[in-house]
Write a structure and sequence with these properties.
- The chain has a domain at about 50-140.
- Helix content is about 65%, strand content about 10%.
- It has 4 helices and 2 strands.
- It has helices at about 1-10, 30-40, 50-85, 90-130, and strands spanning about 135-140, 145-150.
- The longest helix has about 40 residues, at about 90-130.
- It starts with a helix and ends with a strand.
């Protein structure tokens, strides 16, 4: 009887009030799913790994490989001019082997740095908007003294 009376007293949902569900058969789980879909997603990846690998490839491997291949190319040319023989082919072969690896390291490392920096920027923006901080933590003597970091949001 009370629920019948409550249903009679409640106003009927209209299209003017968007917070009231228009479908009476919508379950609470569906309403929660809809609310989760409307909330902005948490950035799952921070980009530290991409930044690290990209920096190692583009900054560590690529300059050395490309530089050594140019040095071998110059050595091969000077060897040909001084000796004029086919003994200097090792320099050209070294250039032919190292140059593609250097170019590949540069071609892979640069996008990794760019995408990793973008993900890290998104992560830091999300942290700022949601007040996520790491706070130093010192545990009490209940189970022994512990020191660590506590994530608060």
């Amino acid at each position: 009887m009370a629920s019948y009376l409550a249903l009679q007293l409640l106003p009927a949902p209209t299209s003017e009030s968007p917070d009231v569900a228009t479908d009476a058969s919508e379950s609470p789980a569906a309403a929660l799913r809809r609310a989760d879909e409307e909330s902005p997603p948490l950035p799952r990846k921070r980009g530290y790994g991409m930044l690290t690998v990209g920096a190692v490839l583009a900054g560590g491997f690529a300059p050395q490989l490309i530089g050594w291949s140019f040095a071998l190319l110059a050595d091969g040319r000077s060897c040909e001019q001084s000796r004029g023989s086919a003994e200097c082919s090792f320099a050209y072969m070294g250039t032919a082997v190292m140059m593609p690896f250097g170019i590949a390291a540069l071609a892979v490392g640069t996008p990794l740095i760019v995408v990793g920096a973008r993900r890290l920027k998104q992560w830091r923006t999300w942290q700022r908007t949601h007040n996520v901080v790491l706070v130093p933590y010192i545990g009490g003597p209940t189970r022994g003294w512990t020191v660590g970091l506590d994530l608060r949001f």
